[in-house]
Amino acid sequence: MHYQVVIPKPVQKQLDDLSDDVYDRIVKRIVMLKEHPRPRGCIKLKGYENEYRIRIGNYRIRYEICDQESVVILLHCKHRKSVYRG
User: Fold this and answer.
1) What is the largest CA-CA distance in the chain?
2) What is the CATH number assigned to the segment(s) 9-79?
3) DSSP state of 3
4) Would you give the distance in Å from CA 54 to the centre of its chain?
5) pLDDT tens, 15-63?
6) Ramachandran quadrant class, 46 (left: phi over 0; alpha: psi -120 to 50; beta: rest)
7) What is the phi/psi pair of residue 36, to 5°?
8) Phi and psi for 76 in degrees, rounded to 5?
9) 63 — phi, psi (to 5°)?
10) Which H, E and C letters describe 18-61, residue by residue?
């Protein structure tokens, strides 16, 4: 089953601000979410119903999975120090 990956404008801005090598690594993982929204190594975040995170070096992708609509919504793509701050 294929999922649609939604990248809101604020998250796209976060991606655009990354260096090229980090950007390439992160985009590869985002594309993989279409096939496997819960890949090996993803962590379900406590206190959230459908939020997960993927670790890519010092960066984290936070995302929400809506299984009924087959949609993955990216919430954040930031350095590990700032990804969990409000």
Assistant:
1) 35
2) 3.30.2310.20
3) P
4) 6
5) 999 999 999 999 999 999 999 999 999 999 999 999 999 999 999 999 9
6) beta
7) -130, 90
8) -150, 150
9) -150, 160
10) CCHHHHHHHHHHHHHCCCCCCCCCCEECCCCCCEEEEEECCEEE
Please indicate whether residue 83 or residue 71 has the higher confidence score (pLDDT): 71
Spatial distance between the Cα atoms of 62 and 84, rounded to a whole number of angstroms? 9
- Residue with structure tokens 């819960």? 38
Whole-structure pTM value = 0.91
d(CA 4, CA 45): 21
The tokens describing 1, both together, are 């089953």
Long-range contacts of 33-40 (CB under 8 A, 24+ apart): 33/3, 33/5, 33/63, 33/72, 34/2, 34/3, 34/4, 34/5, 34/72, 35/2, 35/3, 37/3, 37/65, 37/72, 38/65
Between CA 65 and CA 86 the distance in angstroms is 20
